[in-house]
Amino acid sequence: MQNLLTDIATAAASNPDKGSVATYIPELADIDPKQFGISVALANGDVFCAGDADTPFSIQSVSKVFALALALGHVGDQLWNRVGREPSGLSFDSILLLEREDGIPRNPFINAGALVTTDTYLSGSSPREALAALLRFMRAAADDDSIHINEDVAKSEIATGHRNFSLAHYLASHGNMRNPVDKVLGTYCHQCAVEMSCRQLALAGRFLVDSPAMPTLVSFERRRRINALMMTCGHYDGSGDFAFRVGMPGKSGVGGGILVISPGRAAIAVWSPGLNRYGNSKLGTEAMESFAHSTGWSVFGVPHPG
Amino acid sequence: MQNLLTDIATAAASNPDKGSVATYIPELADIDPKQFGISVALANGDVFCAGDADTPFSIQSVSKVFALALALGHVGDQLWNRVGREPSGLSFDSILLLEREDGIPRNPFINAGALVTTDTYLSGSSPREALAALLRFMRAAADDDSIHINEDVAKSEIATGHRNFSLAHYLASHGNMRNPVDKVLGTYCHQCAVEMSCRQLALAGRFLVDSPAMPTLVSFERRRRINALMMTCGHYDGSGDFAFRVGMPGKSGVGGGILVISPGRAAIAVWSPGLNRYGNSKLGTEAMESFAHSTGWSVFGVPHPG
Amino acid sequence: MQNLLTDIATAAASNPDKGSVATYIPELADIDPKQFGISVALANGDVFCAGDADTPFSIQSVSKVFALALALGHVGDQLWNRVGREPSGLSFDSILLLEREDGIPRNPFINAGALVTTDTYLSGSSPREALAALLRFMRAAADDDSIHINEDVAKSEIATGHRNFSLAHYLASHGNMRNPVDKVLGTYCHQCAVEMSCRQLALAGRFLVDSPAMPTLVSFERRRRINALMMTCGHYDGSGDFAFRVGMPGKSGVGGGILVISPGRAAIAVWSPGLNRYGNSKLGTEAMESFAHSTGWSVFGVPHPG
Amino acid sequence: MQNLLTDIATAAASNPDKGSVATYIPELADIDPKQFGISVALANGDVFCAGDADTPFSIQSVSKVFALALALGHVGDQLWNRVGREPSGLSFDSILLLEREDGIPRNPFINAGALVTTDTYLSGSSPREALAALLRFMRAAADDDSIHINEDVAKSEIATGHRNFSLAHYLASHGNMRNPVDKVLGTYCHQCAVEMSCRQLALAGRFLVDSPAMPTLVSFERRRRINALMMTCGHYDGSGDFAFRVGMPGKSGVGGGILVISPGRAAIAVWSPGLNRYGNSKLGTEAMESFAHSTGWSVFGVPHPG
């Protein structure tokens, strides 16, 4: 495993086409695109790393996985009355289908759906309390209390996030926001601004793996379903492509991170800031394709764990 | 396994809400909605059946899986220049995204994409020859030479299939049809009119399972990818829901059949003519949810084969 | 003319189907739907009235005509770089085409386009100053200093106008807002909350008529063009129907008012709070159809002024 | 008038940017783009011409105006149950709104709506008879029996018109085609292949003018309404722009012809094969803008006929 990760990191370093760093969040626009890290946290507790695996980055939309688990913990399957479970076929911030479908977002991993998720776990508490609960969940999963929110990134997103404000007001106009729009958006932008390294993210991701080495944070049934959503919806309108090439459930963020789950085996975190045309990490996706090919961990292949 | 299937068939028989039989294909409108069959063909060659598992039905869009394998055998990955690999987020016969995306269908499992697939495996031969090759493939997979095409259903679909004619001409207007439209549609309607029983379909589906009990018809890599496409796109705009509830790749047909793959373990065929709102078999979907729950065969759970 | 208006008002009073009062603006939901007024201000200065022609009502989107004139006065044809001149084919608050067309609203008479108009005439001044300029323009046109803004309606719209906030943030996300979103929306909601009676609105509308009885407020060329926009875009996705039935340029508001122009002859204002399915006054539209039939003032008929 | 037309033709000849000739109809792709003709047929019977006003060209979609009059003559206002009266906001051959609106085309001047119109006047007769009736109507209006159909153009359009076949089958799938699709398309393509010179088209267009110099072919009410439809829908998604710049009802064709009506005054035909981005004649549109400016014939200006 260590050799595989080292080879993948070496290949990434020598790849001249690193994609384009997202520029619409000013605080992220200056990131050095040459960085690349990868970590694998096995179910048995072992962790393997290569490249810049200990450099913290903004996990952005990868946070939607943790937020979904938290929201389901609050209201259970009632969440599905307010958000769907289908791929959207459109980009992460599209508002098109919202109009066709009366303000019910397609799934919890596009921005509109994630705003409903945030609105759900926020319910009945202050943004500070809700974010504290989210961090508690992440820290417990990773067994690492140093995971934190980057306030500058959060503020930058609040100041420039007109598209998210547009989506939230649209949801509110359809009665699909319970809390004041500004409060939900403030919480949402802080949630996106959580920072982790690959090592931390892989460790935190084990709550979806069924790992005997850590306490159970969500039930088997719920874990299975979150993994299913990551497979069909985790990469926006590049979800089908990721399933085709990698064959494992994953969730990407515009900061260049991807969390991938191999059920029963491991959580993998990969990070490289340059994005492909779907808004997913370019080198990260290629690294995962190579990783899946070498390990045979695609859920669509033969299920004999190594 | 036999007990499980018998229980599932019994539960289906006593469920009063059997969905609605598709009426837009006249030849299928008169089917008795009370029928239900299920078959499991294990990788080792064993087959288990319950209910009306030996009654032939029109496999309709389930044929798209076999057609895709055949087309990939002809042109390989060049197929992906003409058809995408993403969920469409819309119904099976939608023309909306075609207009947004210059005549490139979203995936090979919606009608527009399947027409491109048919156009591909048809290339360079007559419809009769192409359909003979398709039947040869299906018969070899199922090891059953009695699989055939229902000519009456094919003719009925040709006579009433204005939506498919519309899609095909639309593709042609974008230069994404190589053969004459009428020839492609004739072949396509015959392909959809293949009849199989659950037993036959489960056996035929093993080509996606990695079964040592049968010859390899497609490479491991291609099998894995077809399974991925079935997971993200196999149930139209209900694909996410099927992944969420069942957690295995599957492909449904408007005749009420569903083929489901448990990689390395088994192919499962279920059939009941009544459809849910997405156009997928209602009892069939519920039966597969129950089956997945009992067996733990979701690819998103722990991958220890029974 | 007086007899015609009296007949029309009588017919409206006896029509049992008065449409549905808009409920999404709380302050307007309680209006008595039985009210109906009509006024004709001839080019020569004569005014004829019938029904509740002196009852003030919320002109709502009719204000977009005055706002457009004001914005064109500020920046001239540069406005057309930020907003189109085509019918949208969709409802007044749709966000669909904005996504297809990179944040350029279809025309200045749908909400998104009107927000750009407000942003334009607001530029370089405070909301208070900008609204004062708008009122000055309206009062000068009507020669009536009592025209005012209903603060309660404005506040109600700001508190509940999530759809407009969504549109404005969407425009801002495409760089098509120069002023802060909150400032534009505050101004916009006040602009919509202007109150006039039919008599006042007909008088004010004469600036589009070419009336020798009043000073010229906008050039002939601009007047002609604003009238053209009212014809093709003045009634949202009911614009074609209004042109077909009435044949004169007009602009409707969700408060039930319609301003109609007969070039060279007269400005007509009609008001009845109940709306048809396009969001335009039901009795108002029918009254204008009857008026056009009786007068022969359709611009598509023979152009011999009475 | 003669001097004005000569000046306009001279200006057109010296304009280096003549737009792009439509290439999707092979028979039209070879037309010399330098040609330009204009004719004005006054209500009193006088005709003025300049440029290539006697060169026949393919009127293409301008035929939709005559087809609409013929269809309304057959079924009257029942036509409006099968086709709308609203601008589509999309290009001439879009299929998008058909899907949103259950197979009811937006208006009779986009291709989908014109197919319904053809289906309507075809009803109960052979294509040969129906086309003979259409030619009789055009010849009577122009008082010229030499108007004819170019068979080569018709055949070329049938052979390559996949988009129209797609639209027609789509309509049929919604039950909005009464005749067999092939029959309607054959008739439609012949209708589009009518050839006229500017002189002939201007003369034929007088049936919409209210000209005492010719027999009344359609009632005043119907004429007024057809003019309204030409204003709001006559130039596809460039209709608003044409109304804004020219201010008279008009209908364009992809062959480069435009028929414009000045109610009570004249019919104007202009032709130049190069198209602008909306698919309307570029020089033709500019010539009409100049013509409207010089004559003051905009219906949105002061209605004092010269």
TrEMBL record, chains A, B, C, D:
InterPro entries: Beta-lactam/transpept-like, Glutaminase. The lineage of its organism: Bacteria, Pseudomonadati, Pseudomonadota, Alphaproteobacteria, Hyphomicrobiales. Belongs to the glutaminase family. This is Glutaminase. The gene is glsA. It comes from the Bacteria. Keywords: Acetylation, Hydrolase. NCBIfam families: Gln_ase (TIGR03814), PRK00971.1-2 (NF002133). Substrate binds at residues 61, 111, 157, 164, 188, 236, 254.
